[in-house]
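Subject: for your reference before the review

Hello V.,

The reviewers asked for a structural picture of the protein, and I figured it would be easier to keep everything in one thread rather than splitting it across files. Below is the amino acid sequence we used in the manuscript, unchanged from the supplementary table.
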Amino acid sequence: MTQQSPWMDPDLAAFRDLARTFCEKELTPNTERWIADKQVDRGLWTKAGEVGLLCLSIPEEYGGGGGTFAHEVVLLEEQNRAGDSGWGVSLHNGIVAHYVLAYGTEEQKHAWLPKLASGEWVGAIAMTEPGAGSDLQGVKTKAVRDGDEYVVTGAKTFITNGGQCDFVIVVTKTDPTKGAEGTSLVIVEADRPGFRRGRVLDKIGLKAQDTAELFFDDVRVPVGNLLGGVEGQGFVHLMQQLPQERLIIGISSVMAMELALEQTLRYTKERQAFGRPVFAFQNTKFTLAEVATEARIARVFLDDCIAKHLRGELDIPTVAMLKWWTSDRAMKAVDECLQLHGGYGYMNEYPIARIYADQRVQRIYGGTNEIMKEIISRSL
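And here is what came back from the structure prediction:
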C-alpha cells in the first residue's frame, strides 16, 4: 500500500538504508530504557554525528551534510518506523541549526554549526514560557544590554532537548516597550553561570524525550551571542522558521497514521474472535478502509508540501492547513486503530498505545491547531 513519494530519488533511497540501519541498531533496542530514564543516551548524539546524521541539510562548509530538507524527512521517517519518539533530532537538525544557518553571521555559523553537526552540542530553542505559549509576543524573558554583554533573565517550559542541551536559542525581549519589534533571539550556552535546568517534565507521551524547564538567572552572554547581530529581528525570524517546524509535525502525524494502520492490519489478521480473524468482520474492514484512505490523502498532501518546500514555495497558510489537518486526522485514525486492538490496545507493550499517547501533543505544539485555523482564515 506504500507509494513512492515523488520527491524521492536514488541518492535519498541510499541514504534511507543508512538511516534505517542506524535507527534499528541504535534506537529500537534502547527505547524502553530511555523511557525509564526520560531521556536518550547522551552518546547517541555523538554516534549520530560520527556517521553524518546531524545537520543533514546544513552546507558542508559549516560541518553539515550538504543535503536538503528531504534528507531530514527520511531520517524522521526511519526514526518513527524504528519505534522511537525520544530522540529530539528533528528539532536539532531541522529547526535549531536552521535558525543559525538562516540568520547567523558568518562568524556565528562557523563557530556554532560544526559543534551541532558533530554532536558535541545538543541544540534546543526556548520559546514557550509558563505564561506564554502560542502567543509568542507575550514572552517575558529579557535580555538587557550591559556593556559588551546581555543579561538574560526569565523562565521557559516545555523545552524539547532541555535536559541535555548545550546550546539554546532563547526568545527574549531586548526592548519590552516595542512588542513584537522588541523581540530578539539570544544564544545561551548551558555552561554559563546562572543557567539552570528544572525538572524533566512528566508527560502523557513522548516519555523518552527530555522535555524540561529552563531558568535564566541573570545569565551573562557576550553581545556576539545575539543571533544575526541586530536587535528586534526575533519575531520575524520565528515567523519565517515556524513553517518548517509545522511541516515536521505534519511528517510525524502522517507517519503515525501509516504505522498505526500497519500495526492494526497485522494485529487484526492474526487475532481471532468468534472463530475467525478480527479482520474478517465487516466493521474492521470498513474502519481500516477509511483509515487507509485518509492516510493516503494525508501522504499526498504531505508530499506536495515537501516538494513545494524543497522549491522554496511552501506558504504559511498551506503548511498551517497541513499541520492542523494531519495532526487532527492522525489522532482520530490512531484512536480507531487502538479500538480494533481491544484491551491490548490500552497496554503500553503494544506499539499502538505508544503511538496514541505520542500523537496527542502534535495538535498542541508548533502553535495549537486553533491558531492554525486562525492563520488559515486570514488568507481566505
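For the response letter, the relevant points are probably these. The mean pLDDT is 96. The chain is about 50% helix and 15% strand.

Happy to draft the paragraph if you're swamped.

O.
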